[in-house]
Design brief:
By secondary structure, the protein is of the alpha/beta class. It contains seven helices and 14 strands. Helix 5 crosses helix 6 and helix 6 crosses helix 7.
Length: 278
């Protein structure tokens, strides 16, 4: 793919992933996306990669952050200082990255123009749901989408109800499916061909899980059940070792169902909503 390069660095990410991909976009002017690694040995390799662009007659315009999670920003402040370039991120990232000066606050619809023999225009997409500050970057000319943690080439995406929103995440997946992108460049795993099919598979997977959650609520009866009681039913097809993370996704599904009037809770117990809950 023209003027797009990747560098995978080891990060403290969730298994089965072990690395986070950074991307260099642009021919003469370069936008670096995902200043990911906090590890010293990996940082040395990352810097060598980034500094190598100078020998190619290329300059780094900025470092862009897809979102504030630790496996995506572990080197943000360090790399910006070493390379002498600004950090760009969504406005919602700023309070979540107190040690990182945000020079430009990117918003949905912004266009980043990178000069070169063949100039590149990158459209910024604000895609919350996984995280409130999540951004994707679309090279419309090539149909390449740097998607951060919206989908992955390895493992799945966690929606943590403390900062994520399942309904918003699903809506953003539908939005991405409609873009017509030709390849997705995820933060974790290899490039993904046939993006539309992948995004729709993610939606179908989540809706299938939601149906299992509803069945678990039905089985809990009028008295309902706590998360720990619903988890073995809703995630019966998942290894128990994964249940601590699955518990977060379960709660995210339940919050979505509650907002839709299909689930109700009293204190720490959940049940199917009825007409009396209106």
């Amino acid at each position: 793919m023209r003027d797009v390069e990747a560098f995978a660095a080891r990060t403290p990410t969730l298994p089965p992933a072990t690395h986070t991909n950074s991307y260099a976009l642009g021919g003469r002017e370069v936008l670096l996306v995902e200043p990911a690694t906090p590890y010293e040995d990996e940082r040395r390799e990352w810097l060598a990669w980034a500094r190598g662009f100078a020998a190619q007659g290329r300059t780094i315009a900025a470092i862009a952050v897809t979102h504030h999670h630790a496996d995506h920003v572990g080197g943000a402040r360090f790399f910006a200082a070493e390379l002498g370039v600004p950090v760009w991120a969504h406005a919602e990232a700023a309070p979540r990255l107190p040690g990182v000066p945000i020079a430009r606050r990117l918003a949905d619809g912004d266009v980043v123009r990178l000069g070169g023999p063949e100039p590149m225009e990158i459209r910024v997409l604000h895609t919350p749901g996984h995280a409130p500050d999540h951004l994707c970057f679309l090279d419309e000319a090539q149909g390449a989408l740097v998607c951060g943690d919206m989908v992955a080439g390895v493992g799945t995406i966690l929606i943590d109800p403390r900062e994520g929103d399942m309904a918003v995440y699903l809506a953003q997946l539908e939005r991405l499916a409609a873009l017509g992108a030709r390849v997705v460049l995820p933060a974790h795993g290899a490039p993904i061909e046939e993006p539309e099919a992948l995004f729709r598979r993610y939606v179908a997977h989540r809706m299938g899980r939601e149906q299992r959650v509803l069945e678990a609520l039905e089985g809990a009866g009028e008295g309902g059940a706590a998360l720990e009681g619903l988890l073995p039913v809703a995630y019966a097809d998942t290894a128990p070792a994964i249940w601590p993370l699955a518990r977060l996704s379960l709660e995210a599904h339940l919050v979505k169902l509650e907002r839709e009037g299909r689930a109700a809770r009293r204190e720490d117990r959940w049940r199917r909503a009825s007409g009396n809950d209106a």
